[in-house]
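Regression test case RT-17, inverse folding.

Input:
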């Protein structure tokens, strides 16, 4: 690849010696949003789904539990709603640069099914119409549905086709804040981080099907009229690792050993009557001498050549694209979601060219608040639990009073009836 950027060990060392400040100062930040006051002037709420009354409202909040009540983000606030919102930044190309796309997301609602991903869009987008059909360049972030889907999406659009990452990247499923980072490098490698820890990495060439593979297995047509191909395993290729030992011979008389023998312990019952019950025969039992059909001992095959692997050859359909990683007209970032249960909170969006800078933002925000979140959530759950327990006690007490009141009324009316009857009898 023409644009492969090599870093010699000494330059890596230099970066490490110069402080983070130098690295941070060198970072180019294309977009950054911490959703402080004034955020609404930077973000455009789409009118998508408004006419169907299924467009959901965003809540500017730090959520029900947080590490800093003043650090707000935007949270989906209505169930069964579509959400679409986007922000514009000066158009840029990531050619020759790292592309780092990072944000935090917190699912406060114990998400059963729904997304927590964001999108980068290119070219000219009518932000008022941004919706599910608007073409995007990159879609990245967690997606949860039932037990089967709990993954991080990393979809790259090339030539109007969306390509999903082929590797599984599990996402977080709890109710705490997590930072998702996607890094795309000019050597066509990528990394996916959650909470500043690398969860997946590799190459655009192998982990997406954007281009056909560079190498393919050598194949041959099965027959002239048939498209089906098969691997070229030579006929004399011995792929059996173990064979029967030719030295091992079946012992004489082996096949004469019966599978079952008559039970030597069995005795004819005393009350057996040959005339009535027929002739007595002893029952049979499995023969302890019998060892099953004879099998020769296995030995290592001296001619074993290993499992057959088709030789790999250059794929004639592969045409390299040195700009495979390039998105030349990135210009918008957006959220476009359908939520059955709302409560997903986005915050601290960063789009830059420096993974170290993004990391420092994550540390400053999520990193400083993460230890507060768990106890807050626990406290809230404990309070809810206590609340529910108290309410149950109250209901039980009320039921008891109702029962007593009913029986008092019943006793009272019986007493009255008795009195009436007595009076009638006396008459
Ligand atoms: C916004 O979030 C806060 C904190 O969770 C909550 O108290 C408030 O009711 C929410 N507002 C709306 C309109 O959902
Ligand atoms: C883009 O996709 C179309 C339709 O799938 C295809 O015909 C065309 O060759 C593709 N172009 C490139 C540059 O891959
Ligand atoms: C029980 O009866 C008393 C007296 O009649 C009444 O004041 C009270 O509301 C009743 N309570 C319930 C729970 O029905």
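Golden output:
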């Amino acid at each position: 690849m023409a644009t492969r950027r090599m870093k010699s060990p000494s330059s890596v060392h230099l970066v490490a010696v110069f402080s983070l400040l130098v690295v941070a100062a060198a970072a180019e930040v294309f977009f950054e949003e911490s959703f402080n006051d004034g955020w609404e002037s930077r973000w455009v709420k789409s009118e998508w789904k408004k006419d169907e009354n299924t467009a959901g409202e965003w809540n500017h909040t730090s959520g029900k539990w947080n590490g800093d009540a003043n650090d707000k983000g935007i949270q989906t606030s209505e169930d069964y709603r579509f959400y679409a919102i986007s922000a514009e930044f000066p158009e840029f190309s990531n050619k020759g640069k790292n592309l780092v796309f990072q944000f935090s997301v917190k699912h406060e609602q114990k998400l059963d099914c729904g997304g927590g991903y964001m999108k980068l869009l290119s070219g000219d987008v009518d932000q008022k119409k941004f919706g599910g059909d608007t073409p995007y360049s990159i879609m990245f972030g967690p997606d949860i549905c039932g037990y089967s889907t709990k993954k991080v999406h990393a979809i790259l659009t090339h030539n109007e086709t969306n390509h999903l990452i082929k590797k599984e990247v599990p996402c977080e499923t709890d109710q705490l804040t997590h930072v998702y980072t996607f890094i795309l490098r000019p050597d066509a490698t990528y990394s996916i981080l959650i909470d500043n820890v690398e969860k997946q990495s590799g190459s655009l060439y192998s982990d997406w099907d954007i281009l056909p593979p560079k190498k393919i297995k050598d194949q041959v047509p099965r027959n002239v009229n048939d498209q089906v191909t098969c691997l070229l395993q030579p006929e004399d290729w011995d792929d059996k690792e173990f064979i029967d030992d030719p030295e091992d011979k079946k012992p004489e008389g082996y096949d004469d050993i019966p599978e079952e023998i008559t039970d030597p312990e069995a005795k004819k019952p005393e009350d057996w009557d040959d005339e009535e019950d027929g002739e007595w025969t002893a029952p049979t039992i499995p023969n302890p001498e019998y060892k099953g059909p004879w099998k020769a001992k296995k030995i290592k095959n001296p001619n074993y050549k290993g499992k057959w692997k088709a030789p790999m050859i250059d794929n004639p359909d592969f045409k390299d694209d040195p700009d495979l990683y390039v998105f030349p007209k990135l210009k918008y970032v957006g959220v476009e979601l359908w939520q059955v249960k709302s409560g997903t909170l986005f915050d601290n969006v960063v789009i830059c060219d420096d993974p170290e800078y993004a990391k420092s933002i994550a540390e400053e925000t999520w990193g400083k608040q993460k230890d507060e979140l768990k106890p807050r959530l626990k406290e809230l759950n404990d309070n809810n639990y206590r609340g529910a327990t108290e309410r149950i006690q109250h209901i039980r007490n009320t039921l008891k009073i109702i029962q007593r009141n009913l029986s008092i009324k019943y006793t009272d009316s019986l007493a009255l009836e008795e009195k009436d009857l007595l009076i009638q009898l006396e008459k």
